[in-house]
Amino acid sequence: MFIRNAWYVGAWDHEVGRVMRRRILLGEPVAFFRREDGVPVALEDRCCHRQAPLSLGKLVGNTVECPYHGLQFDATGACVKVPSQDRVPASARVKSYPVVERNHWIWIWMGDPAKADPALIEDFHWMDDPHWGFGGSSLHVDANYLLLVENLLDTTHLPFLHPESLGTGAFARSEFEVTREGDRIKVTRWLMDQPPAPFHQRMGDFADGVNVDRWQIAQFAPPSFVKLDVGSAIAGTGARQGDRSKGMNMFNLNAITPETEKTAHYFWAQAYNFKLDQRWISDLVRQQVNAAFLQDMTMLTAQQQNMDLGPSPVVNLGQDKAWVAMRQIVARLVAEEQQTAPRSVAAA
Amino acid sequence: MFIRNAWYVGAWDHEVGRVMRRRILLGEPVAFFRREDGVPVALEDRCCHRQAPLSLGKLVGNTVECPYHGLQFDATGACVKVPSQDRVPASARVKSYPVVERNHWIWIWMGDPAKADPALIEDFHWMDDPHWGFGGSSLHVDANYLLLVENLLDTTHLPFLHPESLGTGAFARSEFEVTREGDRIKVTRWLMDQPPAPFHQRMGDFADGVNVDRWQIAQFAPPSFVKLDVGSAIAGTGARQGDRSKGMNMFNLNAITPETEKTAHYFWAQAYNFKLDQRWISDLVRQQVNAAFLQDMTMLTAQQQNMDLGPSPVVNLGQDKAWVAMRQIVARLVAEEQQTAPRSVAAA
Amino acid sequence: MFIRNAWYVGAWDHEVGRVMRRRILLGEPVAFFRREDGVPVALEDRCCHRQAPLSLGKLVGNTVECPYHGLQFDATGACVKVPSQDRVPASARVKSYPVVERNHWIWIWMGDPAKADPALIEDFHWMDDPHWGFGGSSLHVDANYLLLVENLLDTTHLPFLHPESLGTGAFARSEFEVTREGDRIKVTRWLMDQPPAPFHQRMGDFADGVNVDRWQIAQFAPPSFVKLDVGSAIAGTGARQGDRSKGMNMFNLNAITPETEKTAHYFWAQAYNFKLDQRWISDLVRQQVNAAFLQDMTMLTAQQQNMDLGPSPVVNLGQDKAWVAMRQIVARLVAEEQQTAPRSVAAA
Q1: Is C314's CB within 8 Å of B68's CB?
Q2: Interface of A with C in 309-348 (CB under 8 A)
């Protein structure tokens, strides 16, 4: 079960154009394309006539022509043409999902369109901020999407799963603080006066032997966003007090969209505020983060396989506090939505 | 659920010989072979002893030897030898399906053998008629078989799915008439004074710029046959009134046999009555029709994938009249059969 | 459903070392490894924290470190370290399965550990007996494990499935005797004064034209072991009366462990008591038996596929007496176990 009344990321901006792109989101088939004026559109990728995928058809101006019998739908999902007859049945339409293009992502609202307020879109301004550069990509997740949210909220896995890039021995025992603000969760960690992680040393140009104060401030927002403010500064130069000038700062930005109960789409970017004039940094950042995330994907797939073998007892640890809260929030929001939703929406 | 008391096509004649061929039909495993005198036989491809597929065994004269423990079955399905003992249990037998070879196809009756009257076999005489040539083949359908019957009964898809071969713009708005005769359905279309479809122009040698009167008369017969009488004649030369001499005529012959609820075997042929002395016509016809049918297969697979995502509202159009009636007929025949069938047959 | 309170073979001795090996047994994920002193260990391959497979982690001395968050488990399955906190929750543990290394196999007890008496391990001493050599291997079975036990208990299939190696025409009609001793079943066959099977002729160096007395004495022991005492001696030299000196003797040793309801692990060895100084005999024996067993695997897969199509009537023959008894024993033992097992074990 998924939270439907929420903005999810459906695609990267560059993935959507004048050739339709099919993607399964929250179990529903969606066809993305752009109108002639460039505005992105998302229609149900299933013709209301014989359920053909519209994405196999073609764009005729701002309308979509079904590949099977040529029905045409405008960007609101209304059928505007039935080739075989003059009358277009009033009920002939496919779902049109509210869509907003923002911060290089195409956002989509899978629930009640009346509630789709763009002001609710999660802030990912870094990707449009001249003070930041970024590298990003996407991955397919062969596991339930919440396993990935867990992964991002409990970074004590870094020294074990990513020892050659992100983790350091000090990580596991770092103190952390979990705070709540409504349904948002914040996990703050500081690792004071420690050798830098390999990736941080490279990005921050820290000399060999120099210790750093490292921060990692993760923020969860429903339905499934995690943003991590991360960085390292030369130890004792006041980063924790607010002066990050002696170090480097990155924002790891994560948007996870369920595909099915056991698969998901993972959109991510890594923003940085250094060497903005050097284009290769973006590629390097993307490459490094992608390599680490592939390690996570292997783990999530393996977890899901074990879970698919059947239930087994589990033990929660102190480090799990944030994601346990996250799961409670998601479960509550799903339950609330199902209670209040009209039956037709609940059924879908 | 399938209509069981009906003749289906199980194989092409050339597919069945002295090496057994396994095929799943209506969810049951069937082994086809020919007796020494050439008569085709279809036995359940599942030994009554330990359920080994007989088709992995060998033919010993007119009997089949199970590959596992050597039980032998005659062409009636009766076990005639148990190597390990003298006594052959009376209940030792596999199903033997009534089989008839006719019109290049091997016909099989999957229901109550007592009702298997060869007179009920659908007429496909064109493949044996000296006034006709034909090209044919078979395809595997990754979708419910009725989606293919729909496809053949609503040819308004031609200009959209097959624009380079079969469709012309005029097709969608062509008038058509649906008539019923018992459980048979006839859909008659005439496209008067139109440019010929590319395939028709090629087959009919129509000069560039010449318009044609085109006919398409589809006939459905249960459980899942569709025959299309199609052709084009020079416009105004009286084809609609009965004189087809100024054009070319083909019969598109389709036999669809369910494999499982979501897959099927598709046997088809295209008969033609021109240039019968030129062998290459048969190959060309087969090639052209096959190319168009592969486009249909892509569509059916995509429909089935969308349907597998769950139910969604559908709208019927005027053009759907024939296949809506077809589905009602099939559903009624299935229901009738299940009410009257003895439990054992119904369970199978 | 499986018998859980029993010793199964989980691996060959050489398969288990200082790199963990994952294997699904009776539906549960198991990680095998050896302690620093060489003693084999089997832990649940599913961390009690977030269900990561421990086998993706690493060995730290005699403890296993989870690849995800670094929890460490000792060889008893007790969690001994949680990197992020001092306190190790008392409930933090994974199952540790009783394991015994014996006769080149790693034995594992999947049920109640309190009942895991090593004295119950099935005797396969041949693999450690200086009077015997052996060749062995393992195969994956794409079918329910009992189909393989059946196969080994009813060797009337030899002339049909293995005519070029093990079977001879006389086999099917050979008399056999089935005896029971508790839950053990013995099937004794003698083929007197017959041409030797090709494999036996090769192994026994029988001259062309010499007939042999051949024996095949199969013993079933729960949950799923079959040992076959097989051999041939020159006809009339008293083998049946006890003097096997004029022939050759082999023991075909089979341990079958369910993986899932429809797959299994097959561990087998072929022991022989001739030419023990000639190393190539072991390879030849392994090669020959493996080739025959691959034929069996093809058959079992095909049987399972037919069974998956749905139930169909079956006929039992006199030759099935042994495996029918075997299935009754297994079913009874499963039922008894489920009645007496505490709920938690029954649920697992």
Answers
A1: no
A2: 309-310, 312-320
Domain B130-335: give its CATH code.
3.90.380.10
Instruction: Name the pLDDT band for B165 (thresholds 50, 70, 90).
Output: confident
pLDDT below 70 — which residues of chain A? 341-348
The pLDDT score that the predictor gives to residue B345 is 45
Answer yes or no: do A56 and B299 touch at CB < 8 A: yes
Distance, in angstroms, between B123 CA and closest chain C CA?
A: 32
In this complex, do A56 and B302 lie within 8 Å of one another by their Cβ atoms?
yes
**Looking at chain A from residue 277 to 306, which residues have their Cβ under 8 Å from any Cβ of chain C?**
298-299, 302-303, 305-306
Tell me which chain B residues have a C-beta less than 8 angstroms from the C-beta of A27: 309-310
Q: For A86, name the nearest residue in chain B, comparing CA atoms only.
A: B173
Query: pLDDT-based confidence at B346, cuts 50/70/90?
Result: very low
Interface-testing mutation among B317, B319, B320, with chain A (most A C-beta atoms within 10 A) = B317
3-state DSSP of chain B: CCCCCCEEEEEEHHHCCCCCEEEEECCEEEEEEECCCCCEEEEECCCCCCCCCHHHCEEECCEEECCCCCCEECCCCEEEEECCECCCCCCCECCEECEEEECCEEEEECCCHHHCCHHHCCCCHHHHCCCCEEEEEEEEECCCHHHHHHHHHCHHHHHHHCCCCCCCHHHCCCCEEEEEECCEEEEEEEEEEECCCHHHHHHHCCCCCCCEEEEEEEEEECCCEEEEEEEEEECCCCCCCCCCCCEEEEEEEEEEEEEECCEEEEEEEEEECCCCCCCHHHHHHHHHHHHHHHHHHHHHHHHHHHHHCCCCCCCCCHHHHHHHHHHHHHHHHHHHHHHHCCHHHHHC
Domain spanning C131-335, CATH class: alpha beta
Given a contact as 3+ CB pairs under 8 Å, which chains touch A?
Answer: B, C
C42 pLDDT exceeds 80? yes
CATH architecture designation of domain C18-98:
3-layer Sandwich (2.102)
Decide if B51 and C156 are in contact by the 8 Å CB cutoff: no
The verdict on a CB contact (< 8 Å) between C154 and B69 is yes
Per-residue pLDDT tens digits for C162-208: 988 888 878 878 889 999 999 999 999 999 999 999 999 999 999 99
Q: Do A306 and C67 touch (CB under 8 A)?
A: no
**A172–C84 CB contact, under 8 Å:** yes
For the entire predicted model, the pTM comes to: 0.93
Q: Does C24 touch chain A (CB under 8 A)?
A: yes
State the architecture of A133-335 in CATH terms. Answer: Alpha-Beta Complex (3.90)
> Is the pLDDT confidence value at B347 over 80?
no
What is the complex's ipTM, to 2 decimals? 0.93
CATH number of B7-120: 2.102.10.10
pLDDT tens-digit readout, C103-157: 999 999 999 999 999 999 999 999 999 999 999 999 999 999 999 999 999 999 9
